Amino acid sequence: QKEVEQDPGPLSVPEGAIVSLNCTYSNSAFQYFMWYRQYSRKGPELLMYTYSSGNKEDGRFTAQVDKSSKYISLFIRDSQPSDSATYLCAMSRMDSSYKLIFGSGTRLLVRP
Amino acid sequence: DVKVTQSSRYLVKRTGEKVFLECVQDMDHENMFWYRQDPGLGLRLIYFSYDVKMKEKGDIPEGYSVSREKKERFSLILESASTNQTSMYLCASSQFANTGELFFGEGSRLTVL
Fold first, then answer.
1. In what order do the strands lie in the sheet with B19-25?
2. Could B100 and A99 be called an inter-chain contact, meaning their C-beta atoms sit closer than 8 Å?
3. Concatenated DSSP letters for A75-103?
4. Cβ neighbours of B42 in A, within 8 Å
5. Which of A30, A69, A90, B96 qualifies as a cystine partner to A100, CB 3.0-4.6 A?
6. pLDDT tens digit string along B34-83?
7. How confident is the model at residue A8 (pLDDT cuts 50, 70, 90)?
8. Do B29 and B78 meet the contact criterion of CB atoms below 8 Å apart?
9. How far is A54 from chain B (nearest CA, A)?
10. Quick one: DSSP state of residue B72?
11. A95: which residues sit within 8 A by CB, 6+ positions away?
């Protein structure tokens, strides 16, 4: 079983929809949680970073961590065609925080 | 803006060849990383360097070596390429090892025939 599970999609939504992207994980030692966005033929770029449980908001993006359920989410409000990309969750332990464990990514398509 | 540059975007090599993948970052970052990205498997850490001439194995170091002679440059070496090393290779750098903020290059797609 993988340490981090992520539905590969693709997830297709109309422009303006609220998008929910999710990851589950098995290692309760994970403390740092990240979401990266990767456009086609580009490297990933960091979108959101959270420590431990709770919510974090940045513009149209909200990251949510539920450590009791070992579940993290990324919500995108008012989705735009420019949000079409692959979204990767990543997480790490406090004692080896440089070592990110990535999900395999969910491909999102926002239709105009 | 942080820039991480991978010198080769696409390479085609034959089995048994020695392959060098070069990565340069321009932000004076201490830490540099090599990942490979495969469909369904996500990104997997090959090697990590936290200082010049210092390196640590990641999750899948077998068949790879690295070199960091200068702070800005981190090279990945495949001593004898094999077909199962066909993949997308991503270099990344970060200022602080204990955060998840990695800056990635655009990737090098390697095909081994």
1. B4-6, B19-25, B73-78, B65-70
2. no
3. EESS--GGG-EEEEEEEEEGGGTT--EE-
4. 4, 6, 88, 102-105
5. A90
6. 999 998 888 999 999 988 988 999 999 999 999 999 999 999 999 999 99
7. confident
8. no
9. 17
10. T
11. A29
Contacts with A53 (C-beta within 8 Å, 6 or more apart), sequence order: A65, A66, A67, A68
Q: Which single residue is written with the structure tokens 């990942």?
A: B35
pLDDT tens string A20-40 = 999 999 999 898 899 999 999
Tell whether B100 lies on the interface with A, counting CB pairs under 8 A.
Answer: yes
Under 8 Å between Cβ of B4 and B23: yes
Measured in residues, chain A has a length of 112
Using DSSP's 3-state secondary structure scheme, residue B90 falls into strand
What SS3 string covers A31-80? EEEEEEEECCCCCCEEEEEEECCEEEEECCEEEEEECCCCEEEEEECCCC
Report chain A residues touching chain B, CB-CB < 8 A.
4, 6, 8, 32-34, 41-46, 49, 88, 90, 92, 97-100, 102-105
**Interface contact flag, A103 B100, Cβ < 8 Å:** no
Which residue(s) pair with A27 in the sheet? none
Give the H or E element holding residue B32. Answer: strand B31-38
* CA-based torsion, A47, B39, A52, B46: positive or negative: negative
> Chain A residues with CB inside 8 Å of B50's CB?
98
The first and second tokens of residue B103, run together, are 């800056």
